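Database export, one record per block. Field names are fixed; values are copied verbatim from the stored entry.
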Amino acid sequence: MKKIAPHKILLLIACAFFSASFYDFTFAAEITIPAISSLKPGQSLPAPMRFISIPNIKRNLVSLVDDQGVTVLRVESNNAAGSVGLPFSIDPLVSPLLTWRWKVSRALDRADMDEKSGDDFAARVYVFFDVPLESLSFMDRTKIRLARLVAGSDVPTAALCYVWDNKHRIGFTRASPHTNRVQKTVLQSGSEKAGQWQTETRDVAADFRKLFGQEPPRIIGIAIGNDTDDTHEQVTTWYGDIAFQTKR
């Protein structure tokens, strides 16, 4: 059997995220995301960044590389999956604007974000929120508790997922086919801009209100990467600096 069923339910939040030390770290202080451009090509990922693999799935290859004199994060996926997790603690009501750069080698041919069997992306950025567990439905609470048992750690209770899709229009939104606790938004689509850096800015507080229908709680981290384990394709993705900013 290729993989266990829960890995893309709430383990999209758990196994694409952090270990039990996560909460000890993030709630210690308000911190910022390390600048990727400040790192050196070829070095290992520095704490608190870490690669998170998914059980029974081939690992993506992750490395810091030079791109025209600037250090960026390269994620290579060949019938594989995995994310780089960045835990931190930020109030989205104070710093709601998330900005980043990304570039892909191509869009995936067989991906379909509407179907569990095609839930792969050339690039994706997760933003994780700490929604109180007691505010969720009985079914959602049960799923998250199960995920926490499997992952051996606390699991974020909601996520926004910004994706580079292959066929849906830019701005299209859809809950994950595995769980409505992950809400997806298409920011880039197709291969027309493949090989070109694209800069994104999102008001994550506004997106959370729109997609979850409530005020956003504290953000507790992000995860960046790609995945091709369902479609069995190959893609390379590059990420530049990621930062939260206040509104001007």
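Remark 1: The longest strand covers residues 234-245.
Remark 2: The chain has one domain: 5-245.
End of record.
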